[in-house]
Amino acid sequence: MLDPTQLRYFLAIAQHGNITQAAKALHTSQPTLTVALKNLEEELGTTLFFRERTGVRLTATGDELVRVTRELFEVMNRGEQRIRGLEKEDAGTFVVGCHESLGAYVLPGFMAQFLPAHPGIEIALANGTSEETVDAVLERKVHFGLAVNPHPHADLVLVSLFHDALDVLITPDAAPPRAEDVAAVGESDEDLAIAIARLRAGPIIYAGRVTQCQELLNQLAARGYLPTKHLVCGDLELVKSLALAGIGPALLPRRVARYGHLGRLVRLHTTLPSIPDTIYLVYRADLHKTRAASLVKDALVKHGKALEKGPSMTTLAD
Q1: Which of 101, 136, 220, 289 has the fewest Cβ atoms nearer than 10 Å?
Q2: What does the alpha-carbon distance between residue 277 and residue 227 come to, in Å, rounded to a whole number?
Q3: How many domains does the chain have?
Q4: Domain range for residue 225?
Q5: Predicted confidence (pLDDT) per residue in 34-51, tens digit
């Protein structure tokens, strides 16, 4: 590996054409430059200068080393500026991870505001379940994660952003259940009896890989409300599309149901069980807090907390 100090001495000698003058310009001794030049020539296995009575003159290999060294120092200078920029300027690339359905209503508004204001910062996206997103943050594959109900971890910072709930939803114009099915429920509250009869008729639509769906199914089963027909999907967006088509009641986060289809899906009944969710920003406690990293974090927190202050989620028709 070439020594940068030796290369600086070499360039000074080449510029002045004289070791003594180069030593004066560098405020060092002539023997220091002579030894450095000798060591450099031995390391490269070549003669870099012709020694003449009035000074030195570059050989062909010396002339080539001048070109290469100047390019090297230019790259080093650009690298130094880049690193300083990452620490103190609005520059850098950051990966934000989250579930696709969560990102679909959180990220568009965030990125539409953030990216034009900070053109030197790039945002890349990584999709996965909340558990996968948290693991990716821990493994340093993702800088910032948006996760639902993450478990505390000694290496992570969790910032609560906003709340949601997994609920039983249906289209408002869904066909009513048969009168005999409503009567069979044996419930004095007619609206609740209709809701239970609708639920029992099925099929109930849900994403099998979402753990909260299984929790809600267990609660419905404990009350005797669960239908025999299940339609299991791999993705919340498909669940939403099938529910919008009137296929049956669906288990969906209220915010997922709301975005892009305000009022198209409603809670089957307010007394049916639901699973409360809290969405967190997740990042490593030892995150390198450059200026750009802090800007991304602060913007995500601000945008997420603004969602909490938005319309009430008690009804999907607000």
Answers
A1: 289
A2: 24
A3: 3
A4: 165-277
A5: 999 999 999 999 999 998
Which H or E element spans position 283?
Answer: strand 275-284
By CB atoms closer than 10 A (0-12, 13-18, 19+), residue 21 is middle
Cβ contact 161:281 at 8 Å: yes
| Average pLDDT, rounded, for the chain | 90
Report which residue type is found at 164: D
Answer yes or no: do 220 and 246 share one domain: yes
C-alpha to C-alpha distance for 264 and 252, rounded to whole angstroms = 13
Residues 114 and 217 in one domain: no
Percent of the chain scoring above 90 in pLDDT: 68
Burial class (CB in 10 A: 0-12, 13-18, 19+), 17: middle
Model confidence, pTM? 0.70
Burial class (CB in 10 A: 0-12, 13-18, 19+), 85: middle
| Contact yes or no for 184/311 (Cβ under 8 A) | no
